[in-house]
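Many introductory courses stop at the sequence. We go one step further.
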Amino acid sequence: MTMIDVLKSIKKAETTADEKLESSKEEAIQIVADARRKAAEIIQNATDESLTSTITTLNTARDKAGKEAKVVEADGSGAIEAVHASASKSRNDAVQLIIDSLMP
């Protein structure tokens, strides 16, 4: 092999190495871009799922609180009616007592 052949082989090897290096850089850039895109998708999906879960939890809590409020309202209404009934009976008894005491 002559000196020129050796130099040509070296030059060819350098060119091949440069091409592989450039190809590897492009591949690395593509891998990083894909990873960033996938990470963004994962974050977006997690955010969406979190929002959906939060809305579901709030709706469930709101429904439960509404049901409990209706029970409390019903209990309170019953207690108010009982107080009114008791007061009415006491008033009627008091009126009757006064009428009985005025009429011998």
